[in-house]
Amino acid sequence: MGSKRQLFAALLIGTVAAAPAMADVKAGVDAWERGDYPRAVAEWRPAATAGDPDAQFNLAQAYKLGRGVAMDLNAAESWYRKAAAQGHAQSEDNLGLVLFQNGKREEAMPWIRKSAERGEPRAQYVLGTALFNGDLAEKDWVRAYALMSRSSAQGISQATTSLAQMDRYIPSDQRQRGTALARDLEARQHRPAPPAARAAADPAGHRPIPMAAPIRPVQPKVAQTDIPPSRPGADYPPPAQAPAAPPPSPPRASAPTPAPPPPIPAVRSPAPTASGGWRVQLGAFSNAQRATTLWQRVSRLEGFQTLQSFMVPAGAVTRLQAGPVDGKAAADRLCATATAAGHACFPVRP
């Protein structure tokens, strides 16, 4: 009898201890939605330190976006890693992308692959690029085309641009196989888990009972490249996404494939600049006017107002770069600002 009382007391203490952590996460969410980012960070930090994965994810988002704290991708990476170690899916997705952005590309790829497999469109874009270029992954144009198609269909504009480049170099038969694989990936993404998997995750055969007062997810006004901070709870659902676009049209007959094709800039090492100073690259476009239009938007961002735009020809595409930038650290800060606003960006070495 005494041991049962002790066990009940221990369970009760654990339940009482968990309640303040959830309250702190909710209070932080409420503060974030009011625009009081320092208060949100102050609410999340104790719960994150105590091991709450939602608080850890939210704190990582604050560091990534530079809201309530100084922007610090290394701190963001650390908090994403803590939450990802507990199986927090959104943290796993962001950890791979932040590792990639921080230059730890080989370490990032297992996380990128895992995220791409469950349908995360940003990870599909990165992995599709790597598979096309044969960088950090085996060259596989069929799977590259399939992943890029799924990323594009889910609204990643850079994937749409890269898909158009792939159309010029991947033979028709491989594009057809890639289109078929893309449809299969889409079906798998929306297919319910098999009964055995559901039973293992939930022996009672039903979904966990939701909290009486569900906590709204934070919805910061960020670009499609940022998943909003998470709510506490048993599940970690992916953010809502726009309905998928129809599958790509049947491929056109193509001319013999040039060899070798130019790489898609997102994964290849940046090319040196002519001036010897650092720059940041914001994309590669088959239409130079699109590069000009993008620069008109980006040039209004903080840190970009004093920079000069460079339209760099690279075969059939025009690369949009901005500079000069005084060192890699400054280039990384600029890219973090551009990424938070929804634009692809990476430093270009001198």
Walkthrough of the structure:
The chain has 350 residues and is α+β, with helices and mostly antiparallel strands. Helix content is 53%, strand content 8%. It has 13 helices and four strands. A hairpin with a 2-residue loop joins strand 2 and strand 3 (317-325). Helix 1 packs antiparallel against helix 2 (37-49), helix 7 packs antiparallel against helix 8 and helix 8 (141-153) runs antiparallel to helix 9.
Largest sheet: 4 strands, antiparallel
CATH first level of the largest domain: Mainly Alpha
What's the total helix number? Answer: 13
Q: Might you state the CATH topology name of the largest domain?
A: Serine Threonine Protein Phosphatase 5, Tetratricopeptide repeat
DSSP, total strands: 4
Name given to the CATH homologous superfamily of the largest domain: Tetratricopeptide repeat domain
Runs with pLDDT <50, length 5+?
A: 3-21, 193-259, 264-276
Q: Give the second-level CATH assignment, the architecture of the largest domain.
A: Alpha Horseshoe
Strand order of the largest sheet: 2-3-1-4
Number of domains: 3
Average predicted confidence as pLDDT? 73
**Pattern of helices and strands:** HHHHHHHHHHHEHEEHE
**Beta-sheet strand percentage?**
5-15%
